[in-house]
Amino acid sequence: MREEKTALVLGATGGVGGEVARQLRGAGWDVRALTRGAPAAGEPRDGILWIGGDAMNREDVMAAAEGCLVIVHAVNPPGYRRWAELVLPMLDNTIAAAKAQRATIVLPGTVYNFGPSAFPTLHEDSPQQPTTRKGAIRVALEQRLQAATTQGARAIVVRAGDFFGPKPGNSWFSQGMIKPGQAVKTINLPGTAGVGHQWAYLPDVARTMVSLLEKRESLVPFAVFHMEGHWDDDGTKMAQAIRRVVSRRTGNAPALRAFPWWLVNLASPFVATFREMRELRYLWSEPLRMSNDRLKAVLGYEPHTPVDEAIAASLEGLGCLAAEVAPEGAMTR
After folding, report:
1. pLDDT tens-digit map of 88-107
2. pTM (predicted TM-score)
3. Is 96 within a domain?
4. What are the residue boundaries of the NAD-dependent epimerase/dehydratase domain, all occurrences included (predicted)?
5. Nearest to 156 by CA among 205, 84, 108
6. What would the DSSP string read from start to end of 18-85?
């Protein structure tokens, strides 16, 4: 039986999926989360029903999605191993469940779909001519989603820049610029000074998705939106903001240094992660900015947390900065 405002989140233990699950719950949705770590019978925790299962198993996904209006597909293979081999079959399982339930799929998108031919300003309908294997797979993901919308499913894709937020995840912010769990003494700059770069704060991305879901019935079956997020106009503003936040809190200003691309180039033949980083270096050597005109036309705004506030929350969540303690008697939000 179909239940009112019930959503299934795949990848709820990750950065994007976790934020979307929490914000859906806060917006009055009944939220289920499919995870390999939960008992098969399901366990409520933090207002979310955790269901044991595997996103790579179609029967598990179909059962967990029974009665759902929405399926958030924010899942990746464990440890990102065999990513290229598994991401399309995982999406196929979600599509099968969405078609059976006539549900809306929400997919966090990226800029990997686009090659330099679409730069410097990316619109939702800019030509997708990826130059990397990961980019080609991202194009295929969206093509499969679009095809599914002709067979009973609906889809919302929210493309954004490089993610950052309070959970480590596989992001440039937490894996390339700083080190989770350590005080910030040095900040790496992956880009070239003067080359603009696009960033997206995970809670803002999640808030955008939840807001779009409230308008899902008025959207076209395959709806794609770009977020502007945080635009670093010269490629150094994000690092400077991290430095500013850390200095304000600790009194010590971290050093800025160039990211060691030489090491990535040297190790890429032997380390898959470095090989992918090398393939995506073009995103740091040419400016790109995403237009959010379509998003603002639908929502009237884009959720946007001030950059210093977003960075402070991210560093606290990553264990790089102690949380601020409000003075006794002070009001808290």
Report:
1. 999 999 999 999 999 999 99
2. 0.93
3. yes
4. 7-219
5. 108
6. HHHHHHHHHTT-EEEEEETTS-TT-EEETTEEEEE--TT-HHHHHHHTTT-SEEEE----GGGTTHHH
